[in-house]
Description:
Elements: H1 2-14, H2 29-40, E1 47-51, H3 53-66, E2 76-80, H4 86-91, H5 95-101, H6 107-119, E3 123-131, E4 134-135, E5 139-143, H7 144-159, H8 163-173, E6 178-184, E7 187-199, E8 221-227, H9 231-234, H10 237-242, E9 252-257, E10 260-264, E11 269-273, E12 276-280, E13 285-298
Parallel strand pairs: 1-2
Antiparallel strand pairs: 3-4, 3-13, 5-7, 5-11, 6-7, 6-10, 7-8, 8-9, 10-13, 11-12
Helix pairs in contact: 1-6, 2-3, 7-8
Amino acid sequence: MPARLALLTKAFEQLNLPHEVYQTRAPLDGRNKAREICERDPNCAGIIGMGGDGTIQEIVDGMHAAFPQGKIAVPLGIFPAGSGNDFVMTQADGKKNALARYKKKNLPQAAQLFAQTVQENRTRSIDLPVANGTAYMNIGNIGLDARIVRNALDYKERWGRYAYVAAVYKSIAQHSNVPLTVEVSGEVIDDGFTLVAVCNGQYYGGGLHIAPHARIDSGKIVLCLVRGMSRPKTMLIFPSLMMAQHHRLKTVSFIECDEVKITLHGDNEVLCLDGNLYPQQTGQSIHFTLRPGALDIFV
C-alpha cells in the first residue's frame, strides 16, 4: 500500500492535480470520510479509493448515504491495492487484463495513466446495488462463500496468507445448506441453498467468475442461485467457478432482475458485501435493489 500510494501521489503531483491524502484507521472510517467529503464539497473533482474491494465498499456506501437519491454528484476512482480486487476485474473487461495492468512492474505506468484519466475527467456511469440501505459495488452473497470469509477472518492471525485455504476446508467440513425464501420477478422460492449471490460485477473471491454475464451498467441485477448440495458435492463448486463452468451444474441457475428479497430461516448467518460482513438473524429479510447509472467512475 505505501509504495502504491507514493506512485499515485507522484503521478498527481507531476500533473499538478491538487489532492489530499487520508488513510483510514478503523472499520467504517472510509464510509464516514467519504460521506463527509460529499456533504462538505459536492462539487469536488472526485474521491480516489486505494485498497481492496472491502475498502471501496465502505467508500461507496458513504457516497450513497450522502446522495441517497438520483445521481451521486462526486465521481469515484479505484486504484486497487487489496488481496482480491475483484471489481476492477470486471471494470477492466477481464481478470487477465486487470492482473496485467496492476502487475508490480507495471504500477508506475498504471499510476500515470490513472492520473491522466482523472485530469481528463474520463468517466462512465455504472449501476449501484443496495442491500437494506447499504450500498456496494460488486457482489452480495450469503451461504457457503460468506461463511468462508467469516472463518478466514478468524484464522487470519494464526494462518496468515493461508487463512483462506484453511477457511475453505473448515467451511466445507461444517457445511449445511441455508434455508431461504427468495422472492424475485413474481416468483417465491423456498429451498435450502448452498449459496446465493446478488451480482453487479462478475468476479469475487480473488477471481472466481461467479456471474460471467453480469454488466455493471446494464440496469439489472444478476442473481446466482446454488441450490442445496451435499458436503462432498460442494467440492465441485470452486473448481467450476475458477473455470466459469458452474453453469453446467444442475443446482446452479441465474435470474436477471431489478430487485430481490431474501428471507433467512434457520440459524443466524452473515451477509457478505464485497468482502465486508454484516450479521443476519433468522427471520430477517434482505431487500436488494439497484440504482441504475447512479455512480460515475474514472476509467
